[in-house]
Amino acid sequence: MTIPATKRNAVGIMGGTFDPIHYGHLLMAEEARQAFDLREVVFVPNGRPAHKKEYLVTGPEPRFRMTELATESNPHFRCSRVEIDRPGPSFAIDTIRAFHAEYGDLDDLYFITGADAILQILTWKDYTSVISECRFIAATRPGFVLDQLNEVAGGSLVDRVSYLTIPGLDISSTDIRNRIREGRSIKYLTPEPVEQFIHEQGLYTRILG
């Protein structure tokens, strides 16, 4: 495990589809911000997710608006349109380089994601550059073991990943979407402004695909 040094000029990227964003995402970001002394965490909704069929994902503008609504009460959070406004599929390496260009004086740039996503990193575009150009915070559930990490990408990745155990990460966007289609409550799974937006827009009331 990499032990984070105290850095006053470090930023975290919280990427994801956020379809919809929920309290698990927010808890992960806040825990990472505090544990790694991040100046801010920037939420970056995917524009056109490279690993998902586009017609199975809600359009980018509603997802961005939900992300704004969910994060606006935290002064250490902000949202970025960098992937939504960039044409073509959304790739982590392009976003990482955009952030390095925006924050030219960073001590460290962290990519915050779930531990299960880290295990898929060999499928990411230009993953060797991704590994070398940022560090990772891998959020894990209590008891989740990442023994496979060294087998997946070797020491070059292991040395760039720090683990952060976070309880209460069992909330999922998939479950929220299913609950809405089944007419069940999503209260306390996502912030109230997001819940209200979902109902006002009629999101997730039909099965896509």
What does this structure look like?
The model is unreliable at 1-7 (pLDDT under 50). The termini are far apart. The longest helix is centred in the N-terminal third of the chain and has 13 residues, at 23-35. By secondary structure, the chain is α/β, with parallel strands linked by helices. The protein has a single domain (10-169), classed as HUPs (Rossmann fold, 3-Layer(aba) Sandwich). It is globular and about 45 Å long. Helix 2 (60-71) packs antiparallel against helix 10 (192-201). The chain has a six-stranded parallel beta sheet, sandwiched between helices. The chain has helices spanning 23-35, 60-71, 82-85, 92-102, 115-118, 127-133, 149-153, 155-158, 173-181, 192-201, and strands at 10-16, 40-45, 77-79, 108-114, 135-140, 161-165.
The quaternary state of the protein chains shown equals single chain
Rg (CA only): 17 Å
Round the mean pLDDT to the nearest integer and report it: 87
Strand content: 15-25%
The end-to-end distance, rounded to whole angstroms, is 41 Å
CATH topology: the name is: Rossmann fold
As a percent range, the share of helical residues equals 25-40%
Q: Which homologous superfamily in CATH is the superfamily?
A: HUPs
Structure class: alpha/beta
Number of helices: 10
Q: What is the element string, with H for helices and E for strands?
A: EHEHEHHEHHEHHEHH
| Count of discrete structural domains | 1
Query: What is the tally of beta strands?
Result: 6
The first-level CATH class name = Alpha Beta
Q: What CATH architecture do you see? A: 3-Layer(aba) Sandwich
Specify the overall morphology: globular
What does the main sheet amount to? 6 strands, parallel
